[in-house]
Amino acid sequence: MPYVNIRVAGTLDKVQKAKISRGVTDVIAREANKPPESIIIFIDEVPHENIAKNGELLTPPK
Amino acid sequence: MPYVNIRVAGTLDKVQKAKISRGVTDVIAREANKPPESIIIFIDEVPHENIAKNGELLTPPK
Amino acid sequence: MPYVNIRVAGTLDKVQKAKISRGVTDVIAREANKPPESIIIFIDEVPHENIAKNGELLTPPK
Amino acid sequence: MPYVNIRVAGTLDKVQKAKISRGVTDVIAREANKPPESIIIFIDEVPHENIAKNGELLTPPK
Amino acid sequence: MPYVNIRVAGTLDKVQKAKISRGVTDVIAREANKPPESIIIFIDEVPHENIAKNGELLTPPK
Amino acid sequence: MPYVNIRVAGTLDKVQKAKISRGVTDVIAREANKPPESIIIFIDEVPHENIAKNGELLTPPK
């Protein structure tokens, strides 16, 4: 029943999302010994101005 | 202080969100013995192309 | 493919977790029109000293 | 490697997000003794109609 | 700045966690075009009795 | 109704959790203009072997 949440800065196109989903599912199914059909992935595309590192937004206000 | 996060594929209308919130709050208040006014629910409506099962997006690229 | 995360302060016994899971699944299946077998719930039991409200831990240090 | 997720009802402007990020990073770096450059913050702006308290949406349907 | 949260039922040994982390990081770095050193993964090992599917705990009470 | 989740590697003592909760609540109340009594914080203390950066666990297997 693995649940995976992937949060990235900015957007991904549909092919990128498909390849990430396939690849991450394969890794977890193989290494954790879980049936792939039980693996659910949610991808969150988060605007750069909503993410901070070291106290700074990725796109800071001017 | 229960916190609930509900993630669904696609969108819900406002009446659905209201009924889910009422129903889920009632269940948790009753079964977990928590004051309903302490229960917070966040509903996330996630696009089908951002969710994968069995390594496939719910709406795969063509 | 609804995913639900319920975080409560303290612990629940197994019967409480079972009743909450049944009740929350029924509500979401009915109101959001989702097949119940697609609904996954994760319950997190969080120690009182790891939760704060109004800037105070639920069990503050002396 | 602290990860922080802040979910607020409604929207924030960029200056608010920047000040929150700076302030929260400073607090965690100082009190938890973590290098500020290792602290990542994700801010989620959630519509009022997707949040419920006491079984009621913050903006209920009429 | 990708953040990944992987929640599994039960426990994993350290080698499994290491292989999953390596594999998932490689997939995301390659497909999403992100520097691997910016990818953070948190693995949550969740007891079977805290996870439900179809309204039933993975290990239901007798 | 701000909800904050802070995930740290390793453990914090109760005084650290109290100071972080107070400080983070003050920052969000002030900068986002939210009543402090509406701000809920959950702190997750995550074992080093369950966190990876750059594809490596913080405490890798030998």
From TrEMBL, chains A, B, C, D, E, F:
Gene Ontology terms, MF aspect: isomerase activity
Family annotation (InterPro entries): 4-OT-like_dom (IPR004370)
Domain 4-oxalocrotonate tautomerase-like: 2-58
Name used for this protein in its record: 4-oxalocrotonate tautomerase-like domain-containing protein
Biological source species: Desulfomarina profundi
Lineage: Bacteria, Pseudomonadati, Thermodesulfobacteriota, Desulfobulbia, Desulfobulbales
